[in-house]
């Protein structure tokens, strides 16, 4: 069973059924039969609301092994590929597993590759925490070394990549994807875009690259303006589609 969010004011904690929460507000034993919407109290009588973990909560509370994909980037991937229930997704560069979890929560079946065994183990724990471990298969290894086998496992509906060797996978995308399927490649640097686009130009169509920028607005009594805090730019996303028009 996945975990739940325990909320008291602006405090948030993640616990699984049967686990204990200890804070200065008291000790709280989470019942085995807990469900979202319940109200629980510590031994000092302090109330906590129980909430179901949702996408933004996963981003905030997953154990991190590096910089995770930002929610705005995950949203663009899902919006431009239409990934959802019934889709098979091949993902590479699992990392913390934020994108894999978002896709699985939307109903997709995700096979994801992570080269670092320790990172992969953390990602498996995160998938369990998010309650999506039954829809996400976290594999350890370099996806480029398994492409022939993956072609046999396919076809996949969506291919999502966040690795330095993404162009090598994109070159095989037409073999991996179902007709009309999409690729989404995250690139932290401009230089990577050209290689990805060149690899996609052979057999894919509808190739587009976007820079991901988001500005938070500060609203106050004196006026409203873009926030001076935070990072607006995260990276670049390249999308393409399998199947050329004759």
UniProtKB/TrEMBL annotation:
<keyword id="KW-0489">Methyltransferase</keyword>
<feature type="domain" description="tRNA (adenine(58)-N(1))-methyltransferase catalytic subunit TRM61 C-terminal">
    <location>
        <begin position="85"/>
        <end position="220"/>
    </location>
</feature>
<dbReference type="GO" id="GO:0031515">
    <property type="term" value="C:tRNA (m1A) methyltransferase complex"/>
</dbReference>
<dbReference type="InterPro" id="IPR029063">
    <property type="entry name" value="SAM-dependent_MTases_sf"/>
</dbReference>
<dbReference type="InterPro" id="IPR049470">
    <property type="entry name" value="TRM61_C"/>
</dbReference>
<protein>
    <submittedName>
        <fullName>tRNA (Adenine57-N1/adenine58-N1)-methyltransferase</fullName>
        <ecNumber>2.1.1.219</ecNumber>
        <ecNumber>2.1.1.220</ecNumber>
    </submittedName>
</protein>
<dbReference type="GO" id="GO:0043827">
    <property type="term" value="F:tRNA (adenine(57)-N1)/(adenine(58)-N1)-methyltransferase activity"/>
</dbReference>
<dbReference type="Pfam" id="PF08704">
    <property type="entry name" value="GCD14"/>
</dbReference>
<keyword id="KW-0819">tRNA processing</keyword>
<keyword id="KW-0808">Transferase</keyword>
<keyword id="KW-0949">S-adenosyl-L-methionine</keyword>
<dbReference type="InterPro" id="IPR014816">
    <property type="entry name" value="tRNA_MeTrfase_Gcd14"/>
</dbReference>
<dbReference type="GO" id="GO:0030488">
    <property type="term" value="P:tRNA methylation"/>
</dbReference>
<dbReference type="GO" id="GO:0160107">
    <property type="term" value="F:tRNA (adenine(58)-N1)-methyltransferase activity"/>
</dbReference>
